[in-house]
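Tokens help. Our protein:
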Amino acid sequence: MVGICRRVLRMGLAAMLLCCMAANCLAVAGEKANECKGMVGHPDDEGRMCQPVDGQFSIVPIEVVQSGHGFAFLGNGSHLLRLNVESLCPLEPVQVWDMLATNKSLDEIRNDIRTTKCVAAYRGGLMLDREIYSLINIVISPSDENSTTLDADVSESRNQSAGGEGNDAATLGKLSLKISLSDGGIVGKGNLELGGSSKAGKYSVLLDMMPRGPRDDKGALRDTGR
């Protein structure tokens, strides 16, 4: 009886995990799949992500690679700004089922997914005051003096582009950040250019960045035992 209960519980957990993964599946039926270059993304499952030729990949979130909060300055005014970028891994359903068929816990399966070799992809977004924007064409690369650069195009959010044709959301501007250590913390400095919206302007950006890593449902760093 105990064995049956455990099996039912694992099947339920597996179904929940697959539902989460299915929510991230970004293949669009009837459209030609995009070339997977590992440098593009859109939050809320509406962006130009890597897509397989047969439309059978699930896009699985791996970890938050860059996130922070701070201010965007325009003239004499300051505006609240939040940033979040996560890495994603395209997996075939058979790979997911093979992982779920083991006796590993869900945390162990997540760790296995993080160590799976896959084409890197990013999904991100930012919030300027109460306005939400998507980040696409995200490029994260190492820079000099142990720092990292983040460059991305800024586009309409999911709600704003709901009447559009999926990947045709208008590009509104560009975000450029240099992320580096500063006084024991991590700071992101750069520029945000926006046009075609109520927040149009050229902003100077200063963000308090959080460490990279997988996070729980509340946004806190997950303990991976490393």
Summary: The chain is about 20% helix and 40% strand.
